[in-house]
Amino acid sequence: MDKFPLISLHARKVSTTGMYNLLHVFNNIRSLTCWEPMFDIWDLSYFPHLRQLTLIRVRYSESVLNSIIYYFENCKRAKYLEKICLEFIVQDQDIQEAPVLYIPEVDVSKIFHKCESLKVFTIEFKDSLQATPSLGYSAYNNPRNVTRAWFQSLSHVQFGQMVQNSVVSVILGNCPSLVNFHANHCPDLGDSDLTEALPIEKAESRLRLRCFYIYEASLLTENSFYTILEAFPNLRQFGNLSRWAVNCEGIQTIVRTIRNNNLEVEILCGSHWFQSACEQEVII
């Protein structure tokens, strides 16, 4: 069988047989993007040089999610991955037989802990009008007392849709290389939670962060803006105030604060979640 030195591949609906052929023909692949994958996820472990993995429109089910997590937890080569992007489609008919209140939480710690070189991580759930799995981090109780290799390398994260406070606390409190923090919906995140996750005395460990963006956080008030401003000395853009607990007067106060202090900070609107270029600015 002929072999080719291809290092980047985009594919769609790759079957088990198709993956077998890819492994034998393109075994030098470093970056793989696959839409609607149909192969056994464990087969990815046979790519010896894989560094960037993007799986798009993966049909969500608990078994599929478990197979993906099993790969990250048990593949020895996962420690070399620098980019992981996962997009799940959650179709209503897939969950209509289960109670809406019972949708298992996705523990992202199981993905992170073996990926020692991880720089970019995104995960999103789409297509469902009902509730989608929330993202949590439950590997330990006190994140500030734990050191993980990936903490040092992580530069860009985007979490969608529902994000638990545990994820926010762990990422913001432990990743000195973080440049962009994006989250879609943080329903339980309040001012005090954000203040606890961002102690001012550790602001020097967060000098690289440029973009802080939470699309919807109904408990965050105007006070959180000042917390963010002090916590990230080099902040350049943040949002989305229109989906926070900030009224028009509060937004005007924030705008005046930025203008009167000559701050180079841009207030982002809702569209940033859908068409952000932040990830492209991170060098892998």
What does this structure look like?
This protein is an alpha/beta fold and 284 residues long. It folds into 2 domains: 9-77 and 85-133, no CATH class; 141-284, Leucine-rich repeat, LRR (right-handed beta-alpha superhelix), CATH 3.80.10. Helix content is 28%, strand content 21%. The protein has 10 helices and 12 strands. It has helices at residues 16-25, 62-74, 92-95, 109-112, 149-153, 165-174, 191-197, 222-231, 248-260, 272-275, and strands at 8-12, 31-35, 52-59, 83-89, 106-107, 120-126, 135-136, 156-162, 180-185, 211-216, 237-239, 266-267. It has a 10-stranded parallel sheet with strand order 1-2-3-4-6-8-9-10-11-12, with no helix packed on it. It has a two-stranded parallel ribbon with strand order 5-7. Helix 6 runs parallel beside helix 7 (191-197).
Quick take:
The protein is of the alpha/beta class.
Task: List its salient traits.
single chain; 284 residues; alpha/beta; ten-stranded parallel sheet
Helicity, as a percent range: 25-40%
Mean pLDDT: 89
Number of E strands: 12
Determine Rg (CA atoms, Å).
20 Å
CATH class of the largest domain, named Alpha Beta
Span between N and C termini? 32 Å
**SS content category:** alpha/beta
Low-confidence stretches: none
Strand content: 15-25%
Examine the secondary-structure arrangement and name the CATH architecture of the largest domain: Alpha-Beta Horseshoe
Shape estimate? elongated
Q: Kindly identify the CATH topology of the largest domain.
A: Leucine-rich repeat, LRR (right-handed beta-alpha superhelix)
N-to-C series of helices and strands = EHEEHEHEHEEHEHEHEHEHEH
Main pleated sheet: 10 strands, parallel
Order of adjacent strands in the largest pleated sheet: 1-2-3-4-6-8-9-10-11-12
Count of all domains: 2
Number of helices: 10
